[in-house]
Structures are given as C-alpha cells and as structure tokens.
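Quick start: what a row looks like.
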Amino acid sequence: MVWNIFKQQRADWLSVLKSFGKDAQLVLLQEAQTTPELVSFATTHYLAADQVPAFVLPQHPSGVMTLAAAHPVYCCPLREREPLLRLAKSALITVYPLYNGQLLMVVNIHAVNFSLGVDVYSKQLGPIGEQIANHHGPVIMAGDFNAWSRKRINALYQFAQRYGAARGEFYRRSSAQGIWPAAGFRVLP
C-alpha cells in the first residue's frame, strides 16, 4: 500500500488505513505524522515502522514512513530541500530479507514539489539511484513522485530506464473517490 496520508487531515484516515493497510506486508506513507493513533496502528499490525521526518510540526514529526512485516537489515534516510519553500522532502530506503535469501530494497519517496525546472527533482533522485546501483536484488520504488509536469515525468522515466526499472500500475479503492491510479517502479534482478 502506498499513500500520501496528508498529515492525517482527512477525517476518515484511520479507518481507510485499517481497511487497506492491516493485511499488507508493506505500507509506504508520505506526510505521515507520528500521532498516537498512527503509532498505535503501526505497533499493532507491523514488526517495523521507520520514518524520516522531513520537518517537525507542533508535537509530531512529519515525513515518509515505511511499515513492514519484517525488520529491515538496512535503513538509509534521505532529505532534499524545496528550493522555493525551503521545506524538506524525505525518502527512506530500507532493505528486507526475503524467504529465498535475496534482499528486497524498498524506496519510499516524497519527491520535491515546488521547484523551477527539474534540476532539484533530479538531484533528489541521484542518491537513490546510487543505492539502487549498488544493490543486488529486487527493488520496489514507490511514493508521491509529484510528477505533475511532462519534464518531471521524463526525468522519472529516464531515472527508471537508467536503473532497469519497469513501471508498475497499482490501484486503490476509496469509497468517496472511486478508483485512482498510482505509479511505482520495480527493478528486476
């Protein structure tokens, strides 16, 4: 499950998370705040909850959070500042052992949103690409890519092509909003 949870501002965020996330092996959240309700959900349903705070709002840090049914053997937090608003966006790379002895790399990203051109956007992808290049095994890269322009989409596709990734289509159902597509990339070994 991949979801920009928007700092838990939707009234029904917890019921949606429980409905879609309680049986998932991995949950990748963006703009997650470590509120008591989210911490309780994470500790009840998952062995591991890792977060990279992008910034601290009153009382609770906010950033990407990965919930997993297994403990990671590696974690790498990454941050990049929005050039216009000076707020940070974060990414988290975690690696999990698989039953077949391989290691699964999971990249949870909340990409830079407010920038002119794609230089900062591409810069944020650079360290992620280095990690992927040094990993031997499957990779899942998902999150809020903020790919709202043709230039950003092209930068993302160039990144994916450089690291041998294939685009995956995922769908989520929300009773209020119908079915919405989301994008992710997987790197095949």
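That is the whole record. The helical segments are 13-21, 36-45, 119-133, 150-162. Confidence is low (pLDDT under 50) at residues 173-189.
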